[in-house]
Amino acid sequence: MSFIFxxxxxxxxxxxxxxxxxxxxEDLMHYMASxxxxxxTEDHIIVIKTIQEYFNTYATTPPIRGLIKILKTKGLDNHYxxxxxxxxxxxxxx
Length: 94
Description:
Layout: E1 2-5, E2 8-11, H1 26-35, H2 42-58, H3 64-73, H4 82-93
Antiparallel strand pairs: 1-2
């Protein structure tokens, strides 16, 4: 699959994940969210960037509990719980 963004072909797999990580940009992140009917908040962006950092280190995504722990070590513990993130994720895909 692919689509055109900023006069450049962006290739994705069947689930919409980028095939070339060099294509990623914040503008593309917002564009792809808009394709799904989402407007990203600062909370979304914090979670996305935290997952990106983890992936760049470990070549995999963090388990949800690991993600919560990382967010808490960044001082972001006021509303980042597994229930809150699960609810946040399920609002679009349920």
